[in-house]
Amino acid sequence: MYTGLVHMHNLLRWVIVITLVLSLINAFKGKNGKETLIMMISSHVMLLIGLVQWFGGELGLKQIKNSGMGEAMKNAAIRFFAVEHSLMMVIAVVLITIAHRSAKAAKPNTKWFLLAALLIIVLMMPGPWKSDTALQRGLFPGM
Fold it and tell me: What pLDDT sits at residue 86?
């Protein structure tokens, strides 16, 4: 089950990134499409999957309990998944939710919420481009 959640979490990131980029393009054009709704729903589902992984998986709360908070903060890989990635992704989901609400009201600041969310997501996304091998993940499940 955990592997399935990791794969779903991995695939949903691409749905979110694609809809986020499309929403950002529309925001700069002054248009409002359904992309922000799809992006918001996907990000909330992703957050729930991430919370299940954080509370029940090996890289979240269990890791902090096993090593202690002090040791977890000293280890870059543990700190990334248990603290940095989790916290920043919650902030990104909040920004996406605000952006969706802002887009519905046709406010001009929508693009800035979307841009901030995209920046946070890209910076906090584990992938093959990370210098620390413990933080490297495949672009798609099974890679």
Answer: 93
Q: Give the DSSP per-residue string, 61-117.
A: HHHHHHH-HHHHHHSHHHHIIIIIHHHHHHHHHHHHHHHHHHHHTT-TTHHHHHHHH
Q: What is the mean pLDDT of residues 23-39?
A: 88
DSSP collapsed to 3 states, 2-68: HHHHHHHHHHHHHHHHHHHHHHHHHHHHCCCCCHHHHHHHHHHHHHHHHHHHHHHCCCCHHHHHHHC
Distance of alpha carbon 77 from the chain centroid: 17
Task: Give the amino acid at 62.
Answer: K
